[in-house]
Amino acid sequence: MISTYQKPLAEVDQARDQHLTFLAGLEERGLAVTAGRQDPPNGGIILLDVDTEAEAQELISQDPYVLQGLATYAAVGWQITRGALAGYQRKY
Predict the structure, then answer these.
(1) Are 76 and 43 in contact (CB under 8 A)?
(2) Where is the YCII-related domain positioned along the sequence (predicted)?
(3) Long-range contacts of 18-26 (CB under 8 A, 24+ apart)
């Protein structure tokens, strides 16, 4: 999921702790592989381990950034073939 901030960074940062807690919950459930803010900070990327775009959209709809109108997300499918994640195995 690639996000684009819809509000100034100062407003986004007011909800950042809530967003990070949301991400931690996804990680605990084995649904988020990694995440981070873009540079420059105009959005972020969350690599989800889900089977369908619909599942990704359902999960991301609960992100505090989305619920508060701070960010929108676009789903981009990806198949790992090389690099550090090439041997990645789903945890759950």
Answers:
(1) no
(2) 2-74
(3) 18/64, 19/63, 19/64, 19/65, 22/62, 22/63, 22/64, 26/59
Beta bridge partners of 45: 2, 36
Report pTM: 0.92
Torsion of Cα atoms, 79 then 56 then 33 then 30, to 10°? -120
Per the prediction, the chain carries an average pLDDT of: 96
**Average pLDDT of span 51-56:** 96
